């Protein structure tokens, strides 16, 4: 009976050994589970886009059979030839690039300038003006009054209809003003002591320090300007030279959905109607259109990613 009893020293060491084993096993289990889960999440996130790329490079008549996953079954460039067959898409591309660049630059500069003004405590009307901008996020006059406003401003069939209505954003204003509020007030006070005016303070101190949040807002504005097509449909549809890339792709996709093949696309791509029917289908055209519309933004995003992550945390931590 005495031999079956543990000595006091062994009894004391038993829980310690269990804790050591548990401390070694728990990190391994957690890291294994975390790695497997993140790999699964990456696969789920990337698969739709990789599948779209595969379909875009697959022959249209073969795509109808299904079963396309990560690699094309019958490689072809005919879908992209059909997308770029119309000469109007090249002019539309440069119009879209111009509107994206101008909209982003003007929106960033003007919204940041307004946000700095409304962040100053000494400005007496900052709260009423902020309230007016916030109300625009909840209330909208509607499509028809907006159209008549654009018409009265003589912006119909004008390139500036893409730029002027989007120069200031209420949401971006709130985000940038919140970020400016986290900057040390001593920077502004020291600049005023040195004789700097508001514009000089804004350009040389506030604007450079807002780089993370501005990169985030720039990405939001650029993606919105690049992807939108409804304003081109409403305000410039009668002027072909002002058509945007997304609007042209939307028209191409719509025509391909209405029939198994677009005769104009087939002629422009150098194909006969029968060969176009065999090679181009609405599903393959839709995949090619999606890739063409997405690639430019995907090329820009890696350069803004580090600022984008920082900008998303604006206002979350404040000392």
Task: List the topology elements.
Elements lengths: L7 H49 L3 H4 L14 H6 L4 H32 L6 H10 L7 H10 L17 H12 L3 H9 L4 H12 L1 H17 L2 H6 L9 H14 L4 H6 L4 H7 L2 H31 L7
InterPro entries: MetI-like (IPR000515), MetI-like_sf (IPR035906)
Main location: membrane
Pfam family, one: BPD_transp_1
Q: What report would you give on this structure?
A:
The chain has 319 residues and is mostly helical. The chain folds into two domains: 56 residues; 172 residues, MetI-like (MetI-like fold), CATH 1.10.3720.10. It is built from 15 helices and no strands. The longest helix is centred in the first third of the chain and has 49 residues. The protein is flat. About 6% of the residues have low confidence.
Describe the structure concisely.
With 319 residues, the chain is mainly alpha-helical.
